[in-house]
Amino acid sequence: MKKTKIGVVGVSGRMGQEIVKVIEANPRCELFYPLHRDEKWDSKKAAKVDVWIDFSSPEALKDVLKRAAEHKTPVVCGTTGFSKKEKDLLSQYAKKIPVLWSSNMSLGVAVLNEALKSLSAISHFDFQIEELHHNRKKDKPSGTAITLQENLEKAVQKKLPEPVAIRGGGIFGVHKIYSMSDEEVLVFEHTALNRTVFAKGAVQAAEWLVKQKPGLYQIRDVLFGKNKA
Amino acid sequence: MKKTKIGVVGVSGRMGQEIVKVIEANPRCELFYPLHRDEKWDSKKAAKVDVWIDFSSPEALKDVLKRAAEHKTPVVCGTTGFSKKEKDLLSQYAKKIPVLWSSNMSLGVAVLNEALKSLSAISHFDFQIEELHHNRKKDKPSGTAITLQENLEKAVQKKLPEPVAIRGGGIFGVHKIYSMSDEEVLVFEHTALNRTVFAKGAVQAAEWLVKQKPGLYQIRDVLFGKNKA
Amino acid sequence: MKKTKIGVVGVSGRMGQEIVKVIEANPRCELFYPLHRDEKWDSKKAAKVDVWIDFSSPEALKDVLKRAAEHKTPVVCGTTGFSKKEKDLLSQYAKKIPVLWSSNMSLGVAVLNEALKSLSAISHFDFQIEELHHNRKKDKPSGTAITLQENLEKAVQKKLPEPVAIRGGGIFGVHKIYSMSDEEVLVFEHTALNRTVFAKGAVQAAEWLVKQKPGLYQIRDVLFGKNKA
Amino acid sequence: MKKTKIGVVGVSGRMGQEIVKVIEANPRCELFYPLHRDEKWDSKKAAKVDVWIDFSSPEALKDVLKRAAEHKTPVVCGTTGFSKKEKDLLSQYAKKIPVLWSSNMSLGVAVLNEALKSLSAISHFDFQIEELHHNRKKDKPSGTAITLQENLEKAVQKKLPEPVAIRGGGIFGVHKIYSMSDEEVLVFEHTALNRTVFAKGAVQAAEWLVKQKPGLYQIRDVLFGKNKA
C-alpha cells in the first residue's frame, strides 16, 4: 500500500509536535515534509507531498495556500483566530484545490455539529451554547462555540443569545448545547480529554482530503459527506 | 377550522388527567370522548372520534385497538411495560389503522433517538446509556433506555453494555448517552422536568396521526418523518 | 403535643399557597393565621401566632417586622430582591426578635453553603459560580448565586469572577460551583425540582426558629447551628 | 532552607515517573533516593531519607514499611488494591511511624471526602455514588468510590446502594455523589484531568507528613487536620 505523504507546516509548534506523533503511529501515513517556521521552501520536495497539514498561524496562511496550490496539493488547516480576510482566502483557494478548515478538528465536535441538526425539529425551544476552557485561553467564546452557534442558528432558524464562556484551571475544552422548553431539557456535551484529539482528527481529514475534488470542506464532511446546507 | 376530536382512554388516571389539561389548553383540539375505566362503550360516539390516546395499561390494549379498528380510528398509545405479545398486537393492528406507540412521548427523547444516528460515524468509540429516575420506579432499565439502547446498537452496529440505572428522590427522568474514546467524550442528555412533557407529546402525535395511513409509528416520526431504518 | 401556630403573610401568592399545603401536610404545625394581602390586621389573633412566614414583597417587609415585633414573634422571611435598606431592617429587628432570612430556603442550598467551606483548603484553585433558571426570571445572577458567591469569596479569601447565568425553558433552578486547577475539577451542583422545596425549608425553619433567641439567622443555621463566620 | 529529602519506591513505574517530575519541579523538595524495583537496599542512604513515597504494589508494601520503620521514616503510600491484610499492616506500622495512605491522593477528592460530611444534615435523602473510568480499569467500583462510600455511610448513618461504575474510552477518573429528595438533587462531582493530580497530592502529603507524629493519616488530614470521626 502506498502511504499518504504528509507535509506539516509549523512542525515545531505544540500542535505540530502532536501531529508528528500521530502520523508516526499511523501505518498508512508518512511524515514526508516536516516544515519548520522560517525554513526555506523546497519546491521540488513539496511537489511530492500528497497533502499539507497546517496549524501554524493566520499570518502564515497565505503562503501555505499559495505554495500548496502550485502543485495542486490539498490543505488541511486547523488554525483558529481567522478574520473574514483569511476565510475569504480559504474560499478563493478552494476553487483550485481541496481545502479543509475547521475551528475544531475533533471527531466528537464534528458529530456535535451533525447531531444539532436534529434540533431543527424543536426550534421553538430556547437554546444556549456554553464552553469551558483553561485559564490561559484568552478568546471568548471559543472558535468552536462560534461555529456551533452558526450551525445551530441555521438549524433552528433564529438568532440565539451569545455563547457563555467559563475559564479556569486546566480544563482542556468542554462545549455544551442546551435546548430548553417548559417541560424538558436536552444537553449535548463534548469534552476533549487531551490535545491528541485535534491531531488525530487532522490526520484522518488529510487521508480523506487527498481523494476529494477542489472545494471547501469541514471535518464534518469527513464523517458525514459534503454538507450541502 | 375543524377541531381534532380526541378520545382519551383511562381519563381518570394520572396521565389521563394530564392529557385532558393539555387538550383543553390546545385550541386545535377537543376532548370529545373521555372514557373512564370500566365505563360502558358507546360505539356511536366512538365512531365520531378522530383519534384515540391511550395511557391505560397493557391489559386494556387489546380492547382499545379492537374498538378503534371498528371505526378505522388511529391510536396513540403511551403505555409502557409491554411484552412481546402486546408489541405483536400493535404491529397486527397497524396493518389496519395508524398506530403510534413510543415508550416515551417527549419531543426531546424523540430528538435524542434521531441525534444518536450521528454516532454511527464514531462507532469505534465506547458507548454507555444511563438513566436516573425517582425511587418509586421499579423497572430497571426504563423503557426509554431500552429503546435508546436498541437504536444505538443499530446505529453503531455492535452490542453494548447494559444501561446503568440510578434510583433516588423525585428525579422525574434523566437519560444519558455516553460516547467515549481515548481523546474525547460526548454526552447526549435528556431531562424531563414534569409529567406534562408526555401529555404534550401525545397530543401533538395525535394531531399528526389523523393524517397518516395505517402503519406503526413512533413519536420520532412526528418530528422527522417515517423512519425507514 | 402542642402544634406550632404559624402565620403566613401573602397567603394567596404562589409561594403562600405552597406554604399552606406544606403546613397542612405537617402534623406538628397549624395554619393559624393566613393573612391575605390588604387584609386588616387583627392584633389579638396575631398575639397568639408562634412564628410568621413571609414570602410577600420587599415593600411589605417593614410592616411584617413591626407587627411581629409587637408580640415578640419570630419571622421567617423568604422574600428576595432586597436592597441594603431591607437588609438593614432585618438586622435591626433581629435585635428584638429571631429573624431568619435566606435568599433560598431549600435544604440542599443550605448544605451547598456549608460544603463550600471545605473549598478553603484549595483556595489556590480557580472558582466560578453558575446558575440556570427559566426564561421568565429577570434578575441575573439569582439571589442564591449572590449568597453563594459571598460565602465562597469568604471561604477562599479572594475576589472571584461574576457568576454566570443561563436562562431558558422551565428550568426550576440549578446552581453550580466550579473549582478548577490544572489537574482536577470539582463541581458542587444543586437542582431544585419544584417549588415545594422552598416551602418545606421555610416551614422547617419556622419550627426551629420558635426555639431561638433574638438574632439574624439563615436556613444554614437550622441544619448546622448558628454560623459564627 | 533545608529541602525535604524524598525517597521514591518504584521510581520507574508510571506513577513513580510522575512523582519524580513533581519533586523536581518543587523547590522545597529533593529526589534523594529513587529506588528501582529489585534494586539493592542501601540502609545507610535510607537513613538520611526524610520521607518515602510508595506507589509500587501491595506485594512490596511489607518491605517498604519494614525498612522505613528501621529509621523511623514516614511513608506516603498511594498503592491501591489493598486487602484487609495490607490495611492491618498499615495500622500496625502506624504505631511506630507516620503512615499516610489514601486510595486517591488528589486534593479534590480529599475535599470531596470533607464536603460530604455536610450531607449528614440531610441524611433522610437518597444517596448514590457513581464513578467513571477508562476502559482499561478492571476493578469496580474504584478504590476511591469505596472510600467515599464508607465515609458517606458514616456521615448519613445508613447503608447505601453499591456505587455505580461506568467504563469507557480514556476517561481519567470521575466520581459523583448524588443526594436526592422529592424536591431537590445535590451532586458533588470530581474529575481528575491527568495523572499529575496524584503525584502532586502525594508530594504535598510527604512534605506535611515529616512534621507529624506516628499514626495513620489520610490525604484529607493534610488539608483539614487529623480527622477524629
Features:
homotetramer; 229 residues; alpha/beta; Rossmann fold; Dihydrodipicolinate Reductase, domain 2; 2 domains; four-stranded mixed β-sheet; 8 helices; 34% helix
C-alpha-based Rg of chain A, rounded: 18 Å
Taken in chain order, the helices and strands of chain A follow as EHEHEHEHEHEHEEEHEH
Q: How many domain units of chain A?
A: 2
Number of helices of chain A: 8
Q: Report the sheet with the most strands of chain A, covering strand number, pairing sense and barrel closure.
A: 6 strands, parallel
Any guess at the CATH architecture of the largest domain in chain A? Answer: 3-Layer(aba) Sandwich
Mean of residue pLDDT values of chain A? 94
Biggest interface and its residues per chain?
A-B, 33 and 33 residues
Looking at the structure, the CATH topology of the largest domain in chain A is Rossmann fold
Shape of chain A: globular
Number of β-strand runs of chain A:
10
Per CATH, the superfamily of the largest domain in chain A is NAD(P)-binding Rossmann-like Domain
Q: Give the assembly state of these chains.
A: homotetramer
Strand residue percentage of chain A? 15-25%
Tell me about this structure.
- Chain A has 229 residues and is α/β, with parallel strands linked by helices.
- Helices cover 34% and strands 24% of the residues of chain A.
- Chain A contains 8 helices and 10 strands.
- The first copy, chain A, has a 6-stranded parallel β-sheet with strand order 2-1-3-4-5-10, with helices on both faces.
- Chains in contact: A-B, A-C, A-D, B-C, B-D, C-D.
- The A-B interface holds A 106-108, 110-112, 114-116, 118-119, 121-122, 179, 181-194, 196-197, 200, 223-224 and B 106-108, 110-112, 114-116, 118-119, 121-122, 179, 181-194, 196-197, 200, 223-224.
